[in-house]
Amino acid sequence: MHRIIEDPNERQWGMLVHIAALATFILPVAGNIIGPLIIYLMKKDEYEFVNEQGKEVLNFQITWSIIFFISILLIIVGIGVLMLVGFGIAWLVLVIVASVSASNGTPYKYPFTIRFLQ
User: 13 φ, ψ to 5°?
Assistant: First the structure.
């Protein structure tokens, strides 16, 4: 069973590290990685929850950046557009679910994620 984080500040920063992935709408190419990375680097030593969730969100964002890149390449054969739409919706839903989970103080593990950072 996962521990539940009681400290409201730690929960807030844990949520923000997930929400920061939405920076991709401001910086389309790398905002989904840069946003969480900034918060992770700022707060990882202060809050263990942010350290844990920051690695989780960075692993997810790197994995899905690779998936989106492959989808873009597959536009040439016609399936890429469908992949971009489907993966884009799944990405947004997973970011929202992870943000809500962290806001509630519960650690979130993204599915379909390569663990680059341990």
Answer: -70, -35
Token pair of 27 as six digits: 């910086």
3 within domain boundaries: no
List the domain range (segments joined by +) for residue 24. Answer: 8-102
Q: What is the DSSP string of 29-46?
A: TTHHHHHHHHHHHHHTTT
Domain assignment present for residue 60? The answer is yes
Please report how the helices 48-73 and 80-103 are oriented relative to each other, as an axis angle in degrees rounded to 10: 170
Q: How many domains does the chain have?
A: 1
In angstroms, rounded to a whole number, what is the distance separating the alpha carbons of residues 17 and 36? 5
Instruction: Kindly state the average pLDDT of the residues 48-77.
Output: 96
Residue pLDDT, tens place only, 23-56: 999 988 889 999 999 999 999 999 999 999 999 9
Q: State the pLDDT at residue 29.
A: 80
Q: Looking at residue 21, what is its pLDDT?
A: 96
